[in-house]
Each structure stands twice: as C-alpha cells, then as structure tokens.
Design goal:
The chain is of the alpha/beta class and 314 residues long. The chain is built from 14 helices and 11 strands.
Length: 314
C-alpha cells in the first residue's frame, strides 16, 4: 500500500491503529500490531503509573517499530503518566475523554505527535484548534466509552472530514478490510480497530471474555449509563441489573452505587462474565475466532486490497 498521511505521520507500513483499550492493550498486543505493520497502542487507562512504565519498557524490547500510548484524560494520576511518557521517549500519544487543550501543548513541546479521540464535529474542531496532529472520529458502533449523540461512523466520518484539514482516523464498527476501505472512501486517512484486536491471542483480557466476543451476535451489545459516561456493553447479568434499575427509576447516585469500582476489570480482565462490565463494539457480531494480531492485520489488508480491486473492475 502506498504511503498516505497516517502512515507518514506515524512512520508505519499500514494505516491501521490498534485501539488502546483498557485491560486489553498491553505490551504484548501493542508490540505484535506494530511488528505486523500497524500502530500498536498501550491502554494506559487501566494502568497504574508503575505498570505503564513496565509495559513501555517491555514494548520497547519486543519491537523496534513505532508504538504509542492512549491516555484517557479523566485518569486521576495523569500528571504521573505524562511524566513517564515523556521520560520514556514515547513519540505518539492518543488522548481521549477530556479537553485536548489540557495536554496537547505540553506533549508537542516534548516532541510528541498528539492524536485526540472525538465523537462529534464540534469536538473535532476543538481538537484541531488545540493543535493536535490528527483526530480519531469514533462512531456510535464502538465499544467501551462512547459519545452521547449516537452518531454512526458512516455519518460521522464525512461530517468531520468536511470541517477539518488535519489527518482523520475512523473508528467504530471497523473490524474487516471491507469496513476499512469504506471508512477511507468516506474520507478517513486510516482506521482505528479495537474490538477485533480484543479477540486476539495477544490481548491481555481474560480468555473467557474473548470467548464471549466470538459468541456475540448482532444486537448483543447496548450503549448504556449515559448519565455517568456512556459505555457499550455485552448483555449479561450486570447489564440486566442496570436495566432493572432504570425500570425502577434509578437516580444517578443509584447507578453509581450499582456500578461500584473496578467493574470493567472484574469482567474483562478477571473473567467474571456475570458481574463484570464487558465492553465491546457492535462489530463483535462479525468476529468468529480468536486470531493472532499479525493474522488480523494481514486479514484486514488482504480483504482491503481484494475489495478495492473488485470495485476497480466494476
């Protein structure tokens, strides 16, 4: 594949970014994706500062290719995380869940390429104004924490493309080469893939969670908890408990109490399929087996080119 704005920006072979998912995106997955030609991201949102340092060190030993760190800006120890990122010589940071103005200038002053994740045109423009180098526009189909507006990827990508001039990465519902091509036809320069890599050999999440992703069918996920922070979950006992709480007129405080602490860790990392949060995207219905990260990248690119060639013939 010829170079484009995303491969040039990151110094990678393919315009594929592996989402920096909590409890899933450790050094093993990030290095495997980077070695396969994409951009691997460490998911700092579920890492204490010392754990992030360990994953950065191990990732550096496992790959000589570019990799980055995804940092949700709601993280309580964010100053420590940013200090570790700078001291460790990380060159690519994806920020999310917060105002891009807070950290973009600091990161860029330290020679770091900054990408911000948004779910609307409004926030894409704010991120561009803040000086980020690229934007991830994430549609409603995506897993984990999501936008409140429920704008689908097919609508969001051309809407954002129309308004910004910096490189654009599409996310949400992209787990096949066909979807990658479609996103790029709509105006994206590259794609961010989360759920497909969650069901990878190298993903650090629990094998029981990976098996649930493979078993998932259309309609098995739902966006909920909009009153707190919208999150797309697989339907399980905890999800049903939430729905029962809503039906009984639960307040925001009731929902916070029901959610408690470490619910995502319990489900995704520890494998509690009943009481844990199981965060995954709608595209889980198209994921039928657990594969290596290298095979996933190769599958994406093979299908991308095959479909592109078919369309050329049409």
């Amino acid at each position: 594949m010829s170079q484009n704005r995303i491969t040039q920006l990151f110094g990678i072979k393919y315009p594929i970014v592996q989402g920096g998912m909590i409890w899933t995106s450790g050094w093993h997955l990030a290095s495997a994706v980077s070695n396969a030609g994409g951009l691997g991201l460490l998911g700092a949102g579920s890492m204490y500062p010392e754990v992030l340092q360990e994953h950065i060190d191990k990732c550096k030993k496992a790959t000589d290719k570019p990799f980055g760190v995804n940092v949700p800006m709601l993280y309580p120890n964010i100053e420590e995380l940013m200090d570790i990122i700078v001291r460790s010589g990380i060159k690519i940071v994806f920020t999310s869940a917060g105002n891009p103005r807070t950290w973009t200038e600091f990161l860029k002053e330290n020679g770091i390429t900054v990408v911000h994740v948004v779910s609307s045109v409004k926030f894409a423009l704010k991120a561009q104004d803040a000086g980020v180098d690229a934007i991830v526009a994430e549609g409603f189909e995506a897993g984990g924490h999501n936008g409140r507006d429920e704008t689908t990827t097919m609508v969001l990508i051309p809407s954002v493309k129309e308004k910004i001039s910096i490189p654009l990465i599409a996310a949400g519902g992209i787990g096949t080469g066909n979807a990658m091509l479609a996103a790029m036809v709509l105006g994206a320069d590259g794609v961010q893939v989360g759920s497909r890599f969650a069901a990878s050999v190298e993903g650090s999440s629990h094998d029981l969670f990976k098996e649930q992703i493979v078993l998932a069918k259309e309609g098995d996920t739902h966006l909920t908890l909009k009153e707190l922070a919208p999150v797309r979950l697989l339907k399980n006992k905890f999800y049903q408990d939430l729905q029962n709480a809503y039906a009984n007129g639960a307040s925001v405080e009731d929902l916070k109490s029901l959610l408690g602490r470490a619910r995502a860790k319990r489900g995704m990392f520890e494998g509690d399929l009943d009481e844990g949060e199981l965060e995954i995207g709608q595209v889980s219905g198209l994921i039928h087996e657990i594969k290596s990260a290298e095979d996933i990248v190769n599958d994406l690119m093979e299908e991308f080119h095959r479909t592109k060639n078919t369309l050329n013939r049409l």
